[in-house]
Structures are given as structure tokens and as C-alpha cells.
Amino acid sequence: MHYLFFHPAPILIEFLFKICEGKSVSMKSVFNTFHSNILNMTTEQIEKFLEKNSIGETPVKVSFKTRKPVVGIFITKGDYSDLKSKNFWRIVGESNLESYSKSKDMNLARIFSGSEMTKLSVL
Predict the structure, then answer these.
(1) What is the pTM assigned to this prediction?
(2) Sign of the torsion angle spanned by Cα atoms 89, 59, 75, 95
(3) Could you give the domains of the chain?
(4) 49-100 pLDDT per residue, tens
(5) Residue 87: how many other CB atoms lie within 10 Å
(6) Minimal CA–CA distance to 42: which of 88, 111, 94?
(7) Tens digits of residue pLDDT in 13-61
(8) Best exposed site among 5, 22, 26, 74 by fewest CB in 10 Å?
(9) Do 100 and 84 meet the contact criterion of CB atoms below 8 Å apart?
(10) Coil, helix or strand for 78?
(11) How many CA atoms lie within 13 A of 104 on its CB side?
(12) Where are the extended beta strands (E) located within the chain?
């Protein structure tokens, strides 16, 4: 199983320097700001994961900040480039995989925001 995640320490240090520069801030505000920014997956992180793992018909577990994980496949056809530029991703869920493999109907997929994703793993 392959996972995409990163070590937060270098990002935390850089982030603290940016927000604390010449200011007095509470630890609570630092934590809240850092926590909301560190968990957002960028387009580059998601794209790198997809390229590295040659995702095509391979199911992926997608974890989110505020909802249960989704297992499915990323669709890299059709409006992929347009959605990717906005950090949105079309994913066919586990319950629709069989139908999608037969019909290739894009309407079986749902669109998810990459900024809500926290972790990707190949199953």
C-alpha cells in the first residue's frame, strides 16, 4: 500500500516565521491557521500521486477532512485538465465501478475538491 503524506515540521517552521514576523500571536490562532492550511492537498500533490502510481483503473482510498473516506478511481479523461486547474477531481465511487468499466459513463462519477482531501492511498 502506497501513501501520500508529508512531514509537517519544515512547513510548520516556515509557516510560523511568516505569520509571527514582528507580531504577537496566540498559540491557538497559530494552531488553527496552521491546521487549516496544512491539511489541504494541492493540485501538484494529487497529480504527483496519480503519476507516481500510474492510476488508471486502480482503486484509491481518498480521505477527507470532514467526511468519510471514498474508495474509487480518478477519471483522467474529458474535462480532467479543466477540473485539475481548479483542484477538483472526478472520482467514480466503489459502488459504480462495475457500471463505469462497462459504459465509461462520466455521469457515474462525482466531483471532489482537492482542498478537502487529506490522504491518498492505493488499495
Answers:
(1) 0.68
(2) negative
(3) 3-38 (no CATH), 43-122 (2.30.30)
(4) 998 887 777 899 999 998 999 999 999 999 999 999 999 999 999 999 999 9
(5) 20
(6) 88
(7) 666 666 666 566 666 665 555 555 556 789 999 999 998 887 777 899 9
(8) 22
(9) no
(10) coil
(11) 5
(12) 3-4, 60-64, 70-74, 88-93, 109-113, 117-122
